[in-house]
Amino acid sequence: MTKVFTILNCGTASGFTSKDIIAELGQGMLAGDKGTNWIINPGPGTTEATGRTALGEGLGHLAASPVGNLPNVQTSIFALNSLSDVIGSLTGLGMSATVDLTITKLKNLGAQPKAVNFVAWSRGAITSIETANRMHADPQLNSWKVNMFLFDPVPGPYWANRLNWSRARRQISENVKTCWVVMMENACSWDSWVMTQLSKPFGGYNQAGTGPYREYFLPGQHWSAVELSKPWGPSCRIGRHLCVGFLLAHGTEVTRNALGWLISDATGVCNWYAKLKLHFLDHWASPNFRWGKIQNPYRYDSYFINKHNRAVFEKAFPYIDTRSIPFVIPKDKDRHVKVVAPEVHALIHRYYPPSQPDTKISRAFRMST
């Protein structure tokens, strides 16, 4: 057993075979034995979550769920699972049971580990927060160090998820030493679905990619940072890179396949950010509800996606003049930039010669104010 135990919590309606980052990590990306070094929990709204017992055996009690017992009706197992899946997607059915089972599993690990890393998406992130709070309140587990990487944590609509909006599922406790959060800016949904604003003991967010609490704003839908096949693929590519970097930095052993998710250097990271920015500029359609909830100072920036993007850019390209628009590449470096980072080169040259701000950015600004 390693000194670090890793917990993967899937998002709403996502299970062990889904096509998202959390499920993929559980399909050969983590080193060591499942159950000994790591576990993966299915998300609410899946048959695995509403019809299982601890960590893969069938669940016989739904009383621990936020909505209590399902009606005791005579029906087939298939029909019961279908009903559970619908209720789970809507209300988060199965989250409390998952927390109970995870706490039991941690207590059965023995003296080691003394640190737990969570990687989670959507309501799986809310499940992780509650688990950390339960660990903090438990004398057997409250000394364990907790680290979290959360993709777009959302509690669900308040009217159906009042327990998910409770303190235990929104406030990060003091045993959480590190928390990195990827926030998706353009999730088109009701205002009540917006991401939980996490309270934290760290003294503030850091958007440049340093410090114990970090937030990375990325354009795209709720699933864009976790599903590579979707149109916002660059968001997912950046999300994968950040996630594996987090795991390595906090002691989780990964396989060679997972190492392939890492972007080789700062230049490569900038190139993916530039590709994402170009996609945003070319495909932006309309503003959306979540924009008013996430305060990204780089939302209307001509070049950068977020503060982390700028920090990495200044490291990779210290010779590019960023003091005005358009940015200026020294003539003797232009060809080099085009070779090592063609998307960065294309983005900078998008504004040659100097012209008015991008019309789509301007239109989005006018419509959202």
* DSSP helical segment count: 13
Please outline the major beta sheet. 6 strands, parallel
Order of helices and strands: EHEHHHEHEHEEHHHHHHH
Strand proportion, as a percent range, falls in 5-15%
State the separation between the terminal residues, measured CA to CA. 54 Å
Shape: elongated
Low-confidence parts, pLDDT < 50 over ≥5 residues?
52-81, 190-196, 359-369
Question: Could you characterize what this model shows?
Answer:
This protein has 369 residues and is an alpha/beta fold. 36% of the residues lie in helices and 11% in strands. The chain has helices at 21-25, 47-50, 77-91, 95-107, 123-137, 167-170, 233-249, 256-259, 266-283, 307-316, 331-340, 342-349, 359-368; strands at residues 4-9, 38-41, 115-121, 145-151, 176-184, 213-218. Helix 6 (167-170) links the parallel strand 4 and strand 5.
What labels describe this entry?
369 residues, alpha/beta, six-stranded parallel sheet, 6 strands, 36% helix
Helices and strands in order:
Layout: E1 4-9, H1 21-25, E2 38-41, H2 47-50, H3 77-91, H4 95-107, E3 115-121, H5 123-137, E4 145-151, H6 167-170, E5 176-184, E6 213-218, H7 233-249, H8 256-259, H9 266-283, H10 307-316, H11 331-340, H12 342-349, H13 359-368
Parallel strand pairs: 1-2, 1-3, 3-4, 4-5, 5-6
Helix pairs in contact: 4-5, 7-9, 9-10, 9-12, 11-12
